[in-house]
Amino acid sequence: DETSYHILVKCTFASLFWQSFKEMFNINLPNLHPLTWCPDLLDEATCQTEDCGPIFCGMWAILTARNGRRHGENPMNL
After folding, report:
1. Which of 61, 59, 4 is nearest to 34 (CA)?
2. Which end of the chain is less packed: N or C, by CB atoms within 10 Å?
3. 62, 71, 78, 73: which is closest to 14 by C-alpha?
4. How far apart are CA 21 and CA 53, in angstroms?
5. Distance of alpha carbon 11 from alpha carbon 5, whole angstroms
6. 42 contacts 52 by C-beta, under 8 angstroms
7. Euclidean distance between CA atoms 70 and 56, whole angstroms
């Protein structure tokens, strides 16, 4: 199923993105539950406050690249 969680966290492109993201920024995407991933990111017990903004920006980048590809723009590259 192509859920928001799958698109932003689990698909092949997202997985590769998060691996590169960790190497570049030393921020690890926390383990997120498929049903509560968004509120989990806002919970300090799951995600440090200073990591939340960069992670959401990363998710925006993944979604923008995906939507561009689906609408005939350039393929997604890492």
Report:
1. 4
2. N
3. 62
4. 13
5. 9
6. yes
7. 21
If you search the block for the tokens 């960790």, which residue do you land on? 22
Largest alpha-carbon pair distance within the chain? 40
pTM metric for this prediction? 0.84
- The pLDDT tens digits of the residues spanning 8-64 come to 999 999 999 999 999 999 999 999 999 999 999 999 999 999 999 999 999 999 999
Any idea which residue has 């509560």 for tokens? 36
The per-type count for the chain, helices as H runs and strands as E runs, is: 4, 0
Q: Give dist(CA 72, CA 76) in Å, integer.
A: 11
